[in-house]
Amino acid sequence: MNKYESVIIIGQDVTEEGIKALIARFTDLINTDGKVENVQEVGRKKLDY
Hints:
The protein is globular and about 40 Å long. It is built from one helix and no strands. By secondary structure, it is mainly α. It has one helix at residues 16-31.
């Protein structure tokens, strides 16, 4: 089985509960046809522009 990585960028106005809901939603979406082996939350990062 092939393994893939993905990065999901979420807007800064989303709350912690919203982030957990999005993680659950994307995990469920991927698990319909595949398998999520690992979810790694790296926290909030400030983008410098």
